[in-house]
Amino acid sequence: MTIPIGSNPAATAAAFNAQAAANTAGATQGTSTSSASNEMTGDAFLKLLVAQLKYQDPSKPVDSAAFMAQTAQMQMVETLHELVEQNAAVIAGQNSLNALTLVGQRVTYSVGSSTASGTVDSVKLTAAGPKLIVNDTEVPLSTVSEVGTATSPSAS
């Protein structure tokens, strides 16, 4: 007989108590758990699984097929999280590369409700993303609306 995680009230209560204790321990250690409390992490899943196995009815053991399906689903979720992280890293790298190609180019960017323009002198790579340095002003790459060739002083 299949007993999915969460259908056994005793196991669910034990797992929630274990998760609450883990969250409390994380909070006392100064780590942020507010964003993680809404997500099912691999660790929380394992705690639920252990609680389910601990409190299962011996006359109705967990179906091995259901157990394997739950494990496979958890592995799939973890793989998807890794893909999301890798995709974010690739996008960040691509944004940095795009910003570097703008050095020496004339850009038009938004500043509040108005626009400004200037030549990109350099690029500052920050954790929040690349920032173009235009006339000693940091301009986020996302605010650039137009790119053109810089006019050289000798041509004018």
Automatic annotation (TrEMBL):
What protein am I looking at? Flagellar hook assembly protein FlgD
Its gene is flgD
Ordered alphabetically, the record's keywords are: Bacterial flagellum biogenesis, Cell projection, Cilium, Flagellum
Family statement drawn from the similarity comment of this UniProt entry: Belongs to the FlgD family.
Output the InterPro entries linked to this UniProt entry: FlgD (IPR005648)
